[in-house]
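Hello forum,

I keep getting stuck at the same step: I have a sequence, I want structure tokens, and every attempt I make locally crashes halfway through. Rather than fight my setup again tonight, could one of you with a working pipeline run this one for me? It's a single chain of 390 residues.
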Amino acid sequence: MKNSYLVIASCLMGIFLLYILLFIHTFFNFQNEFTYSFKSLENLNFHEKYSKKIHHIREEVALSLLFKKPKVEDLLFSTINELEGKKKIVLIQGDSWMEQLTSMSDQNFISLDLVKNFADKKKIGFINAGISSYSPALMNLQLDVLQEDFQIFPTIVIAYIDQTDIGDEICRYKNNKIYKNGILQSVQPEAHLMYKDLFNYSQIYGLSRIYLNDNSKITKTFQLINFKFKYNLTKSTIRFYRKHISRSKTDKDRLNKCYWGEIEKYLIKPSESDIKYFTNSLKDYVKKINQKKHIKKLIFVTFPHKKHFYINSDQTSSYTLNVSDIVDNVIKDKKNIAHINFSKMLLNDKNFNYKNIWAKDNIHLNSYFHGNLFFQKILDELLKYENLVP
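Reply #2:
Ran it on my machine without issues. Output:
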């Protein structure tokens, strides 16, 4: 019996010493634990509140890339010019292609200068609500948030539909959608993912609250160790349940993470059900637009990705699906909706050099073409609606 007590005592002492060593290591590496944490409680609360409704919003670091002094609302949308007194408000929605307008990583705001000059001449208010990986479902919900919480009532909506939106809709958001009476209510944020992944803020929120509280560094170190232990235990438990116990297809689908290869497979070889699902998401977005009586015009914008151009070259790999075609089918015979279809303009233009238009990631446009090709065409389209008023 005495030997049993000694074994238990030795185990407890070992655990205690291990915890002390972990505490010392954490204490002296304290700042490194909070590299990606929020630095403002206001930003943290705002981000967590709206991510519960629309999956995610802009990251805090994006505020440092803005063309102006940021406000907390810039995590969700940015006003480009003064809105007061403007009879016409243009709302820009979409993913990082649109976010690029006001948050250029190279600080080369060619597109923004074009828009601001246009706004001054035409006395139009512009709002940029573009956020990375925003596809029709999130844009749908964003319209309600902007109206209900910020009293934003646009006259014209410019909606960029990216080629990867089909992958985002199916891989990222499908299993997180919450409906009530058949109507989309929210797209829930990621929580306790089994792996590190884009748009998983559940751990960052917890770490940020520790970082931003008023406790001493010693107390925060205890809190940090306990939080990480609890978080990792929860994450591992969820992963084990989904992988080995659950029979739910949704749980099995959540084992697959939405890395780039997963996202672009829907452009390489989509199934009929994939196309139908995305089509229905797009139709739901159009339906929401039509419910907003203050919106007089919707302008869709689509642009081919680099691998769409490979069809007309000697490259062997290419995208077989072009979401521009899906957009065309959805808006057929709808007079209040226009479509700037860059695929029709560029893919068959043998004189167009598609190789020099891309940013370093080969996914987005570089500053020059984002302004002088992409946004210039959008502004040209807006000129057709100069007399459109609420």
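DSSP finds 14 helices and eight strands in the chain. If your local run keeps crashing, start a new thread with the error log.
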